[in-house]
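Hi all, long-time lurker, first post. I run a small reading group and we've been trying to get comfortable going from sequence to structure in the token notation. Rather than ask abstract questions, I figured I'd post a concrete chain and ask someone more experienced to write out its structure so we can walk through it together at our next meeting. Sequence below, copied exactly:
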Amino acid sequence: MKLTVTGDINSFYVQTLCMIFFPGEKFTENQEITEDTPVMSVHVENSETGSYAKAILTYQGKTAEAEKNVEFIPERTKQRTAKIAAGNVVLAVGSELLGYRPSWGMLTGVRPSKVAMEMLLNGNSKTKVRKILNNDYFVIPKKAALATDIARREQKIMGTPNIRDCSVYISIPFCPSRCSYCSFVSYTTPKLLSLIPDYLEKLIKDLSAVLDTINELKLNLKTIYIGGGTPTILTAEQLEKILSLIDSKVDVNSLEEFTLEGGRPDTITAEKLAVAYNYGITRISVNPQSLNEQVVKSIGRNHTTEEFYRAFEIAKRSGIKCINTDLIAGLPGDNFKHFSATFDKIIALEPENITVHTFCVKKAADILAQNQNIYSIRGGDAGKCVDYSQLRAQAAGYVPYYMYRQKNTVGNYENVGFAQEGTEGLYNIYMMEEVHSILAVGAGAVTKLVEYYPANIASTKIIRHFNPKYPYEYLENNTGEQVIDEIKKFYESH
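-- Answer (accepted) --
Happy to help. Here is the structure in token form:
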């Protein structure tokens, strides 16, 4: 896509707006322009009273233009006003030429409920927040209601965050096979899996230092999340090494939540979950993604439907009190009939949590080599699947408790976590809403030191530290001491 951005607006933000209509597009300076190349110019200019925006889009021999003035108001920053103006004109020209109205309007960020929460914290009623999302951001009514309801629920769960609250994330970036859509740093070849013993040795050293620092600084550790990858690819003995270290340094009974991301049913055994239960794990994921075996195999997962049911039963019998299952709407080869049948079967199992993702493809995913046309602006059956999951879950007594969005999802839809009342996945909320620090260890993990201001979310400050992305880089680099220094420096100044 050829995009020209001028004036008082961030070009990256405009790119994200363009990707609503042209998912998967690349933005390059020097490219050959054909009739099928989208060409857009966006200009935003701030005055004393507001933001003016203009957009021109040419695509497949047609051109559309739009202009918009948005006035400054006290409860909205100038930056937000400029974004609304830009969003107005990009949506106008995109909708005109492509005949498509996105469900989430101009909201492009990962956290739509955060926008709703900010308005609620500013004293707006639920009804007014929905109206603002609908009128100013062009979010369709049912999505505006979803974002507002989740924001209200998150507010209730979070209470009043304290600067000394924190959670710990532990990265196990290894999997038994690589999903064709995967964007995570996860490794599957025998050579790379052979790194696990050395990786665990370094991980345990870094985790020990982080937990010691939490105790030294007298921080309030609320949740621990062991994610990946697939943490249950570890043997029971390897898993015990991590959990016994945590047990030696943390009163796990005082944690609000302790999660093990099981993920792949074919890696879950009774022995592993017995170890997990004995060391205080309170939440586990067993993720089929779909109960259609043909669809599952097509995306590179090796487990069968029978293995999922076996793993779920092991989890139920383990004593771990909260089980999550992940499903994906809009998978290649799937349709509404298959997805709704899968969802009904999952509901019948009564897991405490169900997370429904919308199929998303990152640029590094293997599936792009197989099918360059995998991106879909309308998403086929995905919208019906997402709607069905939300209606069916709530009819069965589940409440939507957290939500996030990703770029290049089919149909531009959302990912939503549902929970039986009182079983919400707390780490998901704390991490997604960025209300307290996340201290992370392992390859690809990101430590976020958060200075949260509930009265003015826009003023929240976050310092990020990115660990080396790949396991072999993590083994070769000693960044643990630097992270500890940054954590101490942050908390000693608060």
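A couple of things your group might point at:
The mean pLDDT is 91.
The longest strand covers residues 50-59.
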